Amino acid sequence: MKYAFYPGCTLESTAWDCKVSTQAVCAALGIELEEIPDWSCCGSTPAHCSNTSLAVALPVLNLQKARDLDAPVLTACASCYARLRTANYKVRTEPEERERAERITGAPYGGEVEVLHVLDALVNRYGVDRIRERVTQPLHGLRVACYYGCLLSRPPKVVAFDDPENPTAMERIVSALGAEPVTWPYRTECCGAGLSLTHTDVVCRLGHRILSMAQRAGAHCVAVACPMCQVNLDLRQPEAAAAHGRLPETPIPYLTQLIGLALGLSPDALGLDALFQSPHLLLQNVPGLASGEEHHGIE
Fold first, then answer.
1. Rounded to two decimals, what is the model's pTM?
2. Fold annotation for 137-296
3. Are 249 and 284 in contact (CB under 8 A)?
4. What CATH architecture does domain 2-117 belong to?
């Protein structure tokens, strides 16, 4: 099983732990990732808010580069996933968008390169049962609030790999790892996404609501599959608590980090030390993991 890997800008900077955990988990499962050569920014949030031409052309440029690898594109960033999928949708359904994108990039493209998020690939291509078979350190005792955010399941005409209102892919994986997915109503609520720097007050208000609800559901952590969601819920916790009331420290791991732990990979290999909220709060709930923290550089 091989994919053309598109990291995107965030995985090369603030979300490096998302990148290393994705690569480590894929390697452990026998999934081959070949990074798209000379990839560039897909435009993410700024382009589709400011320049509709670039919002399609930038993702198309990367999909053109991926075409030579003769494999579906895999990305671990929900925002990149949404932009790449949207570009495919646009060039397939709107001839004028295709013509404009081809004019800007200087090459033909008809939306033929398949794009998957790592969550989609793990559940619908690799298979939950196969993941369960590879678990060596079950995460028994860990209660997980699975958080999808806005972009993984909506709009359904563009992404469409899970139910847009009641997705279950993350819960299925979490259960296969031996952990317990909690039932809570804010799984697909917005965290503020790209407003983290421009409207921090909005992000703190929304994040406080999400984290408070996860706490009420009895979650030990909130698992995410989006770098923007991760930074909003993790980095902004102290500000959210100061503005809207006390919050317990809640780790916000990437789903790939939880998978890696269950596969027996070390916290170091998964970038767990990059979490702003202490990994201790995550590991202490899993017998067999907490006792080994000091051997993996988690302090």
1. 0.95
2. Rossmann fold (3.40.50)
3. no
4. Up-down Bundle (1.20)
